[in-house]
Amino acid sequence: MNLFRSMDIQSEPKKENTGNQSPSEHVKCIIIGSGPAGYTAAIYAARANLKPVLYKGIQPGGQLTTTTEVENFPGYTEGVSGPKMMEDLEKQAERFGTEVRWGIVTDVDFSKRPFIVIADDERTLESDSVIIATGATARYLGLESEEKFKGSGVSACATCDGFFYRGKDVAVVGGGDSACEEALYLAGMCRKVYMIVRKDHLRASSILQKRVSETPNIEILFERNTKELRGDKVLEEAVLVKRMGQPDESEEVIKIEGFFLAIGHIPNSDIFKKYLETDDIGYIKTTPGTTKTKIPGIFACGDVQDKVYRQAVTAAGSGCQAAIDAERYLSRQL
Predict the structure, then answer these.
(1) CATH fold for domain 5-137+265-333
(2) Which of these is catalytic: 161, 303, 306, 325?
(3) Residue 128 annotated as catalytic
(4) N or C end of the chain, less CB within 10 A?
(5) Residues 187/211, Cβ–Cβ less than 8 Å
(6) 159: left (phi over 0), alpha (psi -120 to 50) or beta
(7) What's the pTM?
(8) Could you read off the pLDDT of 169-193 as tens digits, one per residue?
(9) Domain segments of the chain: what residues?
(10) Does 96 score more than 90 pLDDT?
């Protein structure tokens, strides 16, 4: 997931769209985003002689830069830290000729060709093709203690990090399909899985509710909110509150070593919505089996268009697809 000006820089005054200014340069391919999808797209695009320019965004490397250890990406037999893996991908992209730039894409104009991309509110570029790899941002509760334990107990991806909590007690926050799926996944390796559910019922599909209720090491804690996470250097316990804000509010403490958020993701797609189709959450729609959007020459890959898998390896695969789609599109324009 990469964060871009499209959604979270609210405190700065927004400058006027500079798309009518004379472009400072013209390129064949611009890649917006620097996670596994963006860097893989850059590797393939550079090898196809597209001379891609890649803008890193606010969170260079995306969500993996907040992960301490990655053990499920092919090729790293001993595992690798998220930041190190992103550093390796960046070097590989640069090796083949990608121009990697620090900067934030703040606006676009896809209504005409060449496409207009504006970086840092002031630099205007023309591009014959655009690959969007801006990722998605996991929703967190917003607790100060949550920030403290990110990477040392707090995670937004059970598939990514559940392995590190084998035989331990963990908690999953959420009551929808994703939360139930995460809890069931963790139940296969953890000693105990608590589900912390704000409401008095699950919102998940009936089949998932049934599976959760029939799994002996899953305990559902209804009508609970997380007040605080505690621990020394790593997470040790969570303080939960029942009937928060009510006169009979009560607290309870559960001993856990892992705390998994499953309350959704926010695709970083705001600045593209004027031109591209998105679903009701904001994921960019692509032609099934491809990375093509409704505008020829604009491609989307990684978590900004994938709400199902959201894995580094699937993001990298779709980045490969996007570069191949872009190369084939450009070859037909000659």
Answers:
(1) FAD/NAD(P)-binding domain (3.50.50)
(2) 161
(3) no
(4) C
(5) no
(6) alpha
(7) 0.78
(8) 999 999 998 899 999 999 999 999 9
(9) 5-137+265-333, 140-261
(10) yes
